[in-house]
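The methods section describes the discrete structure representation at length, but only in general terms. An entry of this sort, consisting of the sequence and the corresponding backbone structure tokens, reads as follows.
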Amino acid sequence: MHLTTRAVLLLLTALPPDHCFARDPAQEIWLSTEDNITLISGHVDGRETRSYRLRIPAAQVITFAVTADNTACGSEIKKTSQRGILTVIDRFPASFSDGAKFGDHYIISFFQSRLAWLDGAICKFSFSVSS
């Protein structure tokens, strides 16, 4: 076996389970045309990222209002009909609006800042989605 292959296999087997690369799938949230506001709160610790997939039932303007600890949290929003990250939120409280088309999905993710990760601080967040 090639020396590089052995080194990679050794490295992968030496990692403890909390260093695995698999992540939990995003929690699904279905917005309906009758809902005015959906409120969500949670926390992130360790090396995990907490993600929520929002399914949009109709063309409408969607507004995210996000509150979190500025020293412990970061957030980003992606839109399935657009490549890359739609917006990064690194100062809280913050709000972001976007025009959604029928069938669009948004993914909002929360993660610890590097400083919070080093200090072992928990990122606590809440956000609302309104149409």
